[in-house]
Amino acid sequence: MIGMGRIIRSGERVALSHYHLDAEQWSAMLSAPGATLPLMSCWADDGRAYVLLLEGDRPLLASTSVEDRRYLAPSSRFAGAEWGERVAYDLYGVEAMDARGNGAPALDEGGWTSTWPLSSRPGPAAGGLRPLAGSHLLRPEQTGLSGPLEFSFDVLKGKIRNVDVCAGGAHRGVVSRLLGRTPEEAMPLVSRMTAGGFVAHPLAFARAVAQARGLIPGAGIRDVWMALLEIERVSLHLFDMARTARGVDAELLATHCDHAREAIARACAEQGVSRRLMDMVSCDGFREGLEIVPLAQAVHAAMQPRLAALEELHRVFAPRLDGFAVLDARLAERFAVGGVTGRASGRSMDMRRREAGMRLEALRATGSSQGDARAREGLRLAEIRDSLKLLERILGSIGLEDDEPAPDRTEEGIGVAEGARGDVWYWLRLKNGRIENLYVRDPGVALLPVLGAMLRGYPVSRVPAALGSIGLSPAGIAL
Amino acid sequence: MKIVSRTGPLSLLHAFMDATRSRAVVDGAVARRERPIGLYVLETGGCEGCFMEIESLNGSAFALEQAGFVCVSDPADADWLLLTGAVTRVCAEMVDRVWRAMPPGRSLIAVGACAVDGGPFPAGYATLGGLQALTPMRRSIAGCPPSPEDILRALQELAQA
Fold first, then answer.
1. Whole-complex ipTM
2. Domains of chain A, with CATH numbers?
3. Could you name the CATH architecture of B32-160?
4. CB contact under 8 A, B48 and A312
């Protein structure tokens, strides 16, 4: 019996973790006996369809050719592939055969200047906006999220039975704007993918670029990147905690989160960097003039004394979050839900653990794995404590050497960063030093297929509070 | 902020006192108005950074209401529409819907580079590229993203003008 991993590795190796499969091998992969490797993402363009899988904690990328604008649907095996197949149809007009789901548009709600805009053969514009199906709608401005995401629901006796999402309002055509640029030209835009990852997105991108170029960043750069990521984690966890707290009228907890987040922003500004650490990461390091030691010390000093109050207030208000918006452990595993939401449901995935030079002793956060809003809030708090410990460890041994060998230069790379809201992935291929192809996976995408189960049985009026507790970013999902 | 370092029955009271003691205040004189200016905030397709900074401004660390403003959740209660993000083609309808729901005397203010001219997201197949290209722009707040202090200061200047 040949497992999925071996079938993929029987294909042609085209990059460090990338195997190209012929149609027969692709079909065999999708019907391979035994365990299904966790799917991180699925996408397709005019030429190829891709699935990014995890084998252990290592990425494994499989691709196959798209023939006559069609390919065998990964969703026939990987339930989480459906969103990527719908996006690929909207952008490139390539069709997934034997796909599960209703095939409704993911991004193209009408109103674009062309159909299949990234295809080599785009079609004429479809005209006006298409109304969403479903008996109840939650308009983009009513979701309580930071960006436009439209929900439609099937509701029976006032309770949600089914959910569909369309992210067209937040789609800005980011990939089309990045193709053809050098990585250095692309970085300012990558740094503005989503405010839910001003550090995580450019960091994952920089790691993918380094792998494509056959480079390993030095230990000093690696540690600066780690420290920036932890500062961002603390700040965003506080933002999501405040939003969750306000969803259940825990205003006092939200107030303390607001003050703590603002104290971090001010500490950053006083150290001469942007409040939310925008434009700090570059392809080969970090912004000139960034002094990571005083920055990390200032953030640590601003945050550490506030933890006791936050923990006490969390204890007081946490019962209000009991059993709210539960994500079942089985679904978290099946759809590879990452970040706090996945870990609070018992999926023990944290991509920081595989990083070279990581001070593993600092990553101790454990807590409830009930999968509800209380577990998520408690875990955010625990992770803030861990982040401060990690900053201490990094400051204590900054630039500690590690024996990680540089990969061969293949002009293709995969990068990942464990952001505050989960694992951010970038895949890119360079040609003559410019981006020939690129794919971005924000952790919010993994949440879309589980929303129906999380929201089932609640009235539509409770949806904003539930969405707030999982830290969803429409900008990251739609790009 | 004095920090609560103890636990137990009194900790909640101390946390409340801390939050009260550190309540944000507005610098300088504030023009008195009969009622606060209602702000409705709408994100129309950016990175969400400006929207989140306005959310911070509307949180407890800033004195938005002392400065004479209040964020509202219904456009019918709003005087000013604060728009963040490049305007995507799909969101144009939402902007129109919200604008028409606002009462007469309404104003439109672009917050951040994307809302002004598209910033890194100029006009494309999915975006219209900011308000500057769509409507005469008299009120805008620059920055990528502007800080809550920048936004508040600009709002106060606009209110005085």
1. 0.93
2. 4-105 (3.30.460.80), 174-478 (1.10.645.10)
3. 3-Layer(aba) Sandwich (3.40)
4. no
